[in-house]
Amino acid sequence: MVQIGIVVTGGAVRLTGSGLGCSTWPQCEPGSFTPVLHEATTWHPLIEFGNRTLTGVVGIVAIAVALLLLTDTRRSRAYRRLGAVPLAGVVVQALIGGVSVLLHLDPAVVGVHMLVSLGLVAVSTVLLYRWSEGDGPVRPVVGPRARATGQALVAVAVVLLALGVVVTGSGPHGGDEEVAYRFEVDPVLIAKLHAAAVWTFIGVLGALVVGLVRDAAPARPRRAAVVLLAVTLAQGLVGYVQYFTGLPEILVGVHMLGAALLTASLAWTVLTLRERSW
Length: 278
Description:
Layout: H1 2-15, H2 44-70, H3 77-82, H4 85-102, H5 107-131, E1 138-140, H6 144-170, H7 187-214, H8 219-244, H9 249-271, E2 274-276
Antiparallel strand pairs: 1-2
């Protein structure tokens, strides 16, 4: 939940033009880790500082998870090591965030920042799912066709999310009013490519849902796939509405939240296609 939360607050920083609310990093202003308030102060520094503070909260949660799993000798070494990934990710994200400020919100760096966040959402979902599983050998609960479709779904999702980042990087929301540089691509063309990836994802997901029903797969993967389909359709609807209404900030923020929810739902769905015994 906190990984998804940081995606939302990071989006709020960008969409409110607060990306350079703190002029430097790791300090907010030279000589101060907190905003320097004066009569001309806007709310931008407070929003950016709030996002940095939430990063600390995510870090505390990540430390707790790492300690909990690394000291649990009942679990496999691989699972315990996986518990340290979110903590390492928080450190990496803090560095990327700092670089993005120092480079005045270069869209490539900001895009990497978003993709790493989504990767951490996926890893956190895996940790949560595996918490209730054993560490025995992996046993598929669906046929090879459904498993292959699940793998294809992940591949399409990677392309889909990457294109989404490029769409945002070529659009109007740079994170600060003074940020002029955007990706030098046709935003309409890249939006159409992103939409094509969305429809490809929906097609592959539809094939997975039909296959699971046809093969009388267990209830858990069928439910997970249907939930993923619902999240995907809602996300697609928001995407089209925001495109045809001029990219209003609130809808772009909802779309970013949807990307995080889709990532978590996808990871959960793929995991339901197999099981581990205790």
